[in-house]
Amino acid sequence: MKKLVLTGAAGRLGSYLREPLTKLADTLVSTDLVEDIGKLYDGESYVKADLSKLDEMMAVLEGADMVVHFGAIGDEAPFDDILQSNIIGAYNVWEAAYQQGVRRVVYASSIHAVGMYPKTEFIGTDVPHRPDTFYGLAKCFAEDLGSLYWDKRQLESVCMRILSAAQVNNPRSLGSWLSYDDLIHLVETSINTPVTGFSIVYGVSNNDRAPVDNHKASFLGYRPKDNAEQFAEKVLAESEHLDPTDLTHMCQGGPFATVEIGNSGLANMNVVDDKKTT
């Protein structure tokens, strides 16, 4: 590819994607809301741009082959905040991609689009939406937007329903963990697969306790290697007995399944900010 665009490049997950994505295109344009993203990798440039402004997305995506869309509020928040960043922002990315002739949107969706399903159901990529928050609702919107733009405008998309790309430090993460290496592999396969149409795939590592089924997305070639079971003995020894009637422990969305709508879900999670520094 000549040009690849990464939104949300200043975020924790974006920090791990920047360098690998420079290997897939002549130019990687990283974008976010910060003034300066710091040291750039060879072949990378940075443009400050606001997802909620269509004209800025149009400018960033001009001449791009694909866009990897990770930019958004990464937590539950009041609806007006989610509306601007996660819903209008998604529309602006897909609409600008269509107008600029971009081939594919590779989108960071989330397990929270189906977060109210019990973990005991081992859900596939084709289950109906069942969001747990406004944040999850916005992911449902973006997935449906991707489906619409494929059906009506032939703009491909891969919606990666990421479970938890963070350190394994609680019982839920023994099933939901997505290692950074597997995250990179997932994004690369979503880019390199010759034809995707509109596709959904779960972003989860090869965990013994994974609560989701990816077999209908096998054509993408995503074959995760890491397994959270290596952390199980320590995590379980340090954990209190879990109440099986508590939706926090029973549902795919974890704490997002019980938090009051509009309030932070991450506030109830011990997510370590291990952002990569160049």
Sum this structure up briefly.
By secondary structure, the chain is an alpha/beta fold. It has 8 helices and 7 strands; from the N terminus they run βαββαβαβαβααβαα.
Q: What is the helix/strand order?
A: EHEEHEHEHEHHEHH
Using only C-alpha atoms, the radius of gyration works out to 18 Å
What is the tally of helical segments? Answer: 8
Unreliable stretches (pLDDT < 50, length at least 5) are none
CATH architecture: 3-Layer(aba) Sandwich
- CATH fold call: Rossmann fold
Give the rounded overall mean pLDDT.
Answer: 97
Strand content: 5-15%
Organism: Leucothrix pacifica
Domain NAD-dependent epimerase/dehydratase: 5-162
Family: Belongs to the NAD(P)-dependent epimerase/dehydratase family.
Keywords: NAD, Oxidoreductase
Care to describe what's here?
Helix 1 (12-22) crosses helix 6 (180-192), helix 2 (54-61) crosses helix 3 (79-99) and helix 3 runs parallel beside helix 4 (134-153). The protein is an alpha/beta fold and 278 residues long. The chain has a single domain, classed as NAD(P)-binding Rossmann-like Domain (Rossmann fold), CATH 3.40.50.720. 31% of the residues lie in helices and 14% in strands. The chain starts with a strand and ends in a 28-residue tail after the last helix. The protein contains eight helices and seven strands. It is globular. Strand 5 (104-110), helix 4 and strand 6 (156-162) form a beta-alpha-beta unit. Strands 3-2-1-4-5-6-7 form a seven-stranded parallel beta sheet, sandwiched between helices.
